[in-house]
Write a structure and sequence with these properties.
- The protein folds into two domains: 77 residues, no CATH class; 212 residues, no CATH class.
- It is mainly alpha-helical.
- Helix content is 78%, strand content 0%.
Length: 312
């Protein structure tokens, strides 16, 4: 049976730990695993490539020898794996409810995946509008470090997304598209959103709070609003379907599209700059907004009606 957010509220929690304390415990677990993973990653990079390569990672010297493989080592061990391990540890050891927090089941209407696919592409104008609004925001001088941080992150992403052949594309789709989607959804829409649902007793509040934390986690101020909206989409997909895999599917579509479009641009197969944010006009933004609202309504309707049929 599919768990709607309202039924999930009624089911309660197998753990006797209060939600606010669950959140605190989860944060501690995540920080601990994150520190350990980074130490291991830096140790391996130093052993394989030397201290200069490790320092190059810190200074974002993308032209340094072995920069990209060293970056992948630190990224996987210091970020990706901790994001995956922390929610699994929490759900198993603290909450003792892997199903209730991670929601790994596949019992949802497969038509939802089609709706998600359509929504992710038809929401592009709306995401562009939010990005344009975000880019026009002016930071005070004392927050200049945020712009510098984003410039460094952009250099790192360009290095990761430098693809010479189709095998590089497949590797990036699997790593950036699929693996990142799985681990981030396990943590945010799995554990964190569930904690806030059980804490606030309000699915909408939980979805939006989680989306804010999801966007803030990426430390990119000038991409905060579009990533916030994507987090809202992912949150409702999971809350209404009762399965983490609807969020993973949407997240995968978003990330993989960036990878593929970037490759096509690098090979001059398409002319449009992947980061171009002026492809649509206000009519397109309005149509996109109405379409997104309609598809979210259809998505919820399919999930809820199917759930009612299974109950009967």
């Amino acid at each position: 049976m599919i768990n709607t957010p309202y039924k999930e509220l009624d089911k309660g929690d197998k753990s006797s730990v209060r939600p606010w304390l669950q959140l605190l415990i989860f944060i501690c677990i995540f920080i601990g695993v994150l520190i350990l993973g980074n130490l291991i990653g830096m140790g391996i990079v130093t052993a394989l490539y030397g201290l200069k390569t490790l320092l190059a990672l810190g200074s974002v010297t993308v032209t340094a020898p072995h920069f990209v493989p060293a970056l992948w080592i630190v990224q996987i061990l210091g970020t990706t794996l901790p994001i995956f391990i922390a929610p699994i540890m929490f759900a198993r050891l603290v909450a003792n409810d892997l199903q209730g927090y991670i929601k790994p089941g596949f019992r949802f209407p497969w038509l939802l995946l089609v709706v998600i696919f359509a929504l992710m592409f038809l929401s592009n104008p709306l995401i562009e509008l939010l990005s344009n609004i975000n880019q026009k925001m002016i930071l005070p001088p004392w927050l200049k470090w945020m712009r510098d941080s984003e410039d460094s992150a952009q250099k790192v992403m360009e290095a990761i997304l430098k693809m010479d052949n189709i095998w590089d594309v497949i590797a990036d789709v699997l790593m950036i598209g699929l693996l990142t989607a799985i681990v981030e959804e396990f943590m945010f829409r799995g554990v964190i959103q569930t904690i806030f649902i059980r804490w606030t007793k309000n699915t909408h509040v939980a979805v939006w709070i989680t989306a804010i934390l999801f966007s803030a986690f990426h430390m990119e101020f000038f991409g905060f609003l579009p990533r916030l909206m994507l987090g809202v989409f992912f949150g409702y997909f999971v809350a209404w379907s009762g399965s983490i895999w609807t969020g993973v599917w949407a997240h995968f579509i978003n990330n993989s599209t960036v990878v593929v479009v970037t490759y096509l641009f690098q090979k001059k197969i398409i002319n449009g700059e992947p980061n171009e944010q002026h492809m649509f006009n206000y009519i397109g933004y309005a149509i996109s907004f109405v379409t997104v609202v309609f598809l979210l309504f259809i998505y919820k309707r399919i999930a809820v009606v199917k759930d009612q049929i299974q109950v009967e």
